[in-house]
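Need a sequence for this fold. Nothing fancy.
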């Protein structure tokens, strides 16, 4: 797929943006986003408990995976990168600029996830630290009474990222008291369209369901609504590896998505298994490998 350089990327930054886009997508136009932002979003629920390896409770487990596996970008918070990035400068980072915990239920209070740190501060940090900064991420909770504030922050982050020649990825999650079904295909398509209006390069969305079941054709409304903004499906809770890869393959080749944002289905495994799973996901996403080829990678 041809690299799409947004018009708000200054001409002097076209080369940098193109290089980042091509490297991140392996020339495929698809993004394999390794999501490592759940330590805030889900607290310790995703990192400690039955069927979760003890090593996953250590934040460095994420960095070990990201440094040894094939990924497009590793998305996590600035502070975590500041703690571990010095030892893992080669990881392609996507800095997540906002996050919130899940302590207060959405039924009690509409969500608002405010920006933590400025884009320019992260750019300066990347310059003096030598980390490999690929772009920025931000979550918008559409339908929240605070959506106006998050939309404004998101628009500014996307523009500032592009001015610096970096990628911008938006998590587009309808949530709040007015959202009855966050997996509604029509609502997800609307969220994808909003991401395009915000100028995002990629939009990470919920997987659409009908009658509680996944059908890859349900994604077609969203991928069309997003236009040339790539749609990424969230990975969700850890499931059987082969079932996950099958669904991913269908999302891309039937639903026309352009990647995935996967966390738990990778990091909730011992290091060796996590690396194999990430490599299998990358193979389908960015190397255009078949499901059979990806399973061979998984089996080692």
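Here you go.
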């Amino acid at each position: 797929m041809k690299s799409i350089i947004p018009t708000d990327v200054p001409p002097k930054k076209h080369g940098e943006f193109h290089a980042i886009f091509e490297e991140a997508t392996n020339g495929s136009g698809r993004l394999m986003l390794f999501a490592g932002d759940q330590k805030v979003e889900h607290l310790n629920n995703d990192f400690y408990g039955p069927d979760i390896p003890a090593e996953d409770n250590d934040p460095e487990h994420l960095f070990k995976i990201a440094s040894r596996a094939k990924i497009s970008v590793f998305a996590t918070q600035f502070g975590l990168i500041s703690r571990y990035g010095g030892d893992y400068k080669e990881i392609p980072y996507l800095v997540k600029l906002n996050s919130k915990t899940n302590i207060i239920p959405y039924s009690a209070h509409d969500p608002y996830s405010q920006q933590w740190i400025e884009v320019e501060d992260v750019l300066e940090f990347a310059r003096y630290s030598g980390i490999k900064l690929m772009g920025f991420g931000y979550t918008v909770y559409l339908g929240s009474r605070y959506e106006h504030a998050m939309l404004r922050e998101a628009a500014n982050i996307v523009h500032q990222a592009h001015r610096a020649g970096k990628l911008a990825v938006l998590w587009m999650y309808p949530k709040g008291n007015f959202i009855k079904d966050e997996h509604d295909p029509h609502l997800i398509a609307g969220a994808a369209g909003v991401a395009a209006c915000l100028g995002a390069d990629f939009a990470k969305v919920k997987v659409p369901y009908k009658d509680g079941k996944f059908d890859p054709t349900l994604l077609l409304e969203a991928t069309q609504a997003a236009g040339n903004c790539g749609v990424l499906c969230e990975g969700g809770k850890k499931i059987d590896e082969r079932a996950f890869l099958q669904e991913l393959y269908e999302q891309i080749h039937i639903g026309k998505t352009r990647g995935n944002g996967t966390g738990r289905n990778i990091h909730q495994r011992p290091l060796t298994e996590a690396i194999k799973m990430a490599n299998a996901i990358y193979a389908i996403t960015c190397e255009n490998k078949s499901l059979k080829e990806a399973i061979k990678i998984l089996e080692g």
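For context: The mean pLDDT is 97.
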